[in-house]
Known about the structure:
Layout: E1 15-20, E2 51-58, E3 61-68, E4 87-93, E5 107-117, E6 123-129, E7 146-153, E8 156-164, E9 178-186, E10 193-194, E11 211-216
Parallel strand pairs: 1-2, 1-11
Antiparallel strand pairs: 2-3, 3-8, 4-5, 4-9, 5-6, 7-8, 9-10, 9-11
Amino acid sequence: MFETLVAPAFLFKYSAPCLYRENLWTGGGVELEEKYSLPFFGQLEGKKPYADLRVAWNEEGLAFNLRVEGKKQPPWCRDSRVEDSDGLQVWIDTRNTQNIHRAGRFCHRFALLPIGAGRNLGEPVISLLAINRAKESPREIDIRALKIKADKRLGGYTLQAFIGSDALTGFSPIEQPTLGFYYALADRELGPQTFSVGPEFPFDEDPSLWGTLELTR
């Protein structure tokens, strides 16, 4: 009997297509079709996803759709404790530098929460967070470049978000058609769901552990 000393997900580099969409956001949000779904690489370790994440791009930025299912309890979210809240975090490197272990100014970390803001904590949250140990930080952003919408559903929730190009230092799809990318979904009830390697690795601060989004027309 042999023990697995290294998680299978750690042995590979991960890449997924991110398809072009002419319209990414309207006043009512954005609904991305199934063809925009990202693969779930946790299946290499026998894990099953409880959420579906879809991503699209155009020159104006990136759009995200998230659907979480299988919940019996509401998510725990607070805009005063964003990093500790249930919800989605995404890491984006507009230069897709795969061989660095500390984030630079082209590396971004965004939090997307279905609730947690407003008088009754019922409004969604989207914010840019600092990356631990980063050598440099991206430029300051105008909050108007970030948009989010969320809805409660039986057994879960849906979330729609838009990250404008003005919030992504170095975003240039023509010159750089790939992005370093990682996501981690936190849920106190259902546990974590991640793009590839799990919480036993420092993906939150090490860009070499992130995968790649191929900006595809």
